[in-house]
Amino acid sequence: MEQADAVVYDRLAPEALLSYARSDAERIYVGKKPGDDQAMKQDEINRVLVELGRAGKTVVRLKGGDPYIFGRGGEEALELIEAGIPFEVVPGVTSGVAAPAYAGIPVTHRNVSTSVAFITGHEDPTKGRSDVDWKGIANGADTLVLYMGVGRLREISSELIAAGRGPETPVAVVRWGTLPEQRTVTGTLRDIADRVAEAKLKPPAITVVGSVVDLRDSGLGWYEKRPLFGRRVVVTRARAQAGELSAELEGLGAEVREFPTIEVRRPEDFGPLDGAIASLDSFDWLVFTSANGVEAFVDRLRHHGSDLRAIPRGAKVAAIGPATAEALERFGLRVDVVPREFRAEALIDAVADESLAGKRVLIPRAKVAREILPEKLREAGADVVVPPAYETVPSAEGKDRLVRDLESGRIDCVTFTASSTVDNFVTAFGPDESARLLSGTRVVCIGPITADTVRGHGLRVDAEASEYTIPGLVGAVVDLFAADPAREAR
């Protein structure tokens, strides 16, 4: 993906994989949806692949599942061979194995199923006949896995019963397997078509027939039990800092939409920071208010051929919270003070026992930030230097898509990790539009300062973290939905 000049991808290809493509890579969507006359036909897809190959481009043909199991990968490969274009195949995990596993159904299991058959439920309609030997298949394997058969489920069930498979044979239909939208309907060959129709389950889906389906009730359905399963959560952090929050939410089953409202950049003028670094041995305290500030400060030290060992031996170091402290400790610097509450006011209280009169304090931070910390330190008699180590600028990357998702009710929660993310969100959409877009979802903030900023814009806050950290924010999201389990995931 990182080497590709072009990525040709399907409807079922994991969207997250596209993020690995280069920013300048050509992205070509060739998804095919049942009943969609506008979808790209297979011969057109073949032609696109050949044309890209002949142009000398490195191409990734990205599919969901395995390309050689009902993925038409063989057809595309044969076209490339005929055109004299070299290729390689990277096997994937076929949905016929992955979807049941995520639904808590092993397709084989000792003493239950020693054989499995993969069958297409959607044959080439131009053939005019069926090549599926239902009589031979019905009892030819303990587990039957049917691809693309939801539209013909009633007919297929009747075929299997007529061929000798028991009407009470357990059946499960798994829609959008392995994704947060996953839904599973169970029944028997006798009633599964009615149950699926009642649940309004649509393609894409995998159907599993056999006694292994009953194992789902033994506690194997791990994925759908995650506390944020099926929830879509928006992360508004800068792209570079979103990873930790996104990973924790995804680990609990959420589908994350990253909407970076801010972008972290180098300051326009490094002069003030360079001056502070040049006189680093004159400071008695170094105060860091964010992990961004730590990384920017260390980067600038390295630019000057130095590192944190340049900090005077007797100087003390304070961090506004554990995440900032961890960032410092990763660089090998011991932190002297971390307040109990992770905000500027608490940091002031934490150093109150120290005499600050005549002390020099360095606070490398964002160009635009709350002034309460340096003001209070100056009131205590300190000489405070606040050079910009970085600056944040508004970003509206992915704005149109987020509007569509919010308007369609597909978003369960929007998270804010700092006042700047709130301000930039409102800047991106405008006050009235922000209120409209957020009226149908939940808003969760990392702490009271951020929550006050939200309310200051006339917006509602549904929950705020009691511990002003990323884990605290994740916990607030989990608690919010645990308190309202009746509210169905979107």
What does this structure look like?
One of its GO terms (biological process) is siroheme biosynthetic process. The protein has 490 residues and is of the alpha/beta class. The chain has 4 domains: 6-82, Cobalt-precorrin-4 Transmethylase, domain 1 (3-Layer(aba) Sandwich); 95-220, Methyltransferase, Cobalt-precorrin-4 Transmethylase, Domain 2; 232-261 and 395-482, Rossmann fold (3-Layer(aba) Sandwich), CATH 3.40.50.10090; 265-391, Rossmann fold (3-Layer(aba) Sandwich), CATH 3.40.50. It contains 17 helices and 20 strands. The strands form 5 sheets. It has a 5-stranded mixed beta sheet with strand order 4-5-8-6-7, with helices on both faces. It has a 5-stranded parallel beta sheet with strand order 10-9-18-19-20, sandwiched between helices. A 4-stranded parallel beta sheet has the order 13-12-14-16. The protein is elongated and about 90 Å long.
